[in-house]
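Fig. S4 source data, part A: sequence.
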Amino acid sequence: MAEPTPRISIIVPLKNEARSVAQLVDETRAALARVAEPYEIVLVDDGSTDGTWATIRTMAEADPRVIGIRFRKNLGQTAALSAGFDYSRGDVIFPMDGDLQNDPADIPRLLAKLEEGYDVVSGWRRSRRDPLLMRVAPSWLANKLVSLVGGVKLHDFGCTLKAYRRDVVKDVRLYGEMHRFIPIYASWHGALTAEIEVNHRARVHGRSNYGFGRMFKVVLDLIVIKFLADFLQKPIYVFGGMALLSLFGALMAGLYAVYLKLRHNISFILTPLPLLTVLLIVLAVNAVLIGLVAEISVRIYYEAQQKKTYVVRETLNTTLKQ
């Protein structure tokens, strides 16, 4: 008999996890047996150089519910999750790490919370089994910053173990290292978000490459998130504001140069103020031009793809389809 269409999709990015992947799949099967729903486990090999893919191939041959995807080279966790979203079929999606630190036994609890009416349920590793200075402290700072800027109040954006309804992530396109901001993307589409504590286990194999250096990437990604959240449909507000600020600076520098000339007989060539004035005017003009190009790009983005500038949750007494 053909396998039923899965309702649940587990997506696991893997990079050199040959020693962990078999145990992870076994634990995931045991956890999903308690749910009694058809499922699939999508394993994405992100350019592993050990025996990860060979192990995935063996499990996929033995169990059709195990789906294997192999990248040609290492592309990062965001790309792996994006591929998992594209190749998965379930209505409910559970991403999780492949290093055994996420506990598959938490999947039924996440699913139960999701079925209370939420669209996103995020795991919170309240008791983390990681080094305090190199992992926990940077993560705490990053989570505070992301919550403040992104407007979604979660304790642990970095926890990969989450539950998503497919309809809130199907249009999300991930680039760079934006996977940690998926709850923010989902909130833009009106998703209802909850958070529950999940078990976090100590790393058994290998070591993590995350630390304080990741904070710089988080800050840069947050700039992009803030721009997309507040100014995607009106970029001229950003560039126009920069132009006005530059023009104000040019006016102040120019007036002060004239004041020095008239009041103290200081020649224009003896002060950098005239050059500063010209530079700020040029920056203002460039900012306006870039803003106009951005406005045109936004219109192309929406009109060429026939995208809507709004998202409808549900309708009543209408046959019009979005």
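Fig. S4 source data, part B ends here. The longest helix spans residues 273-304.
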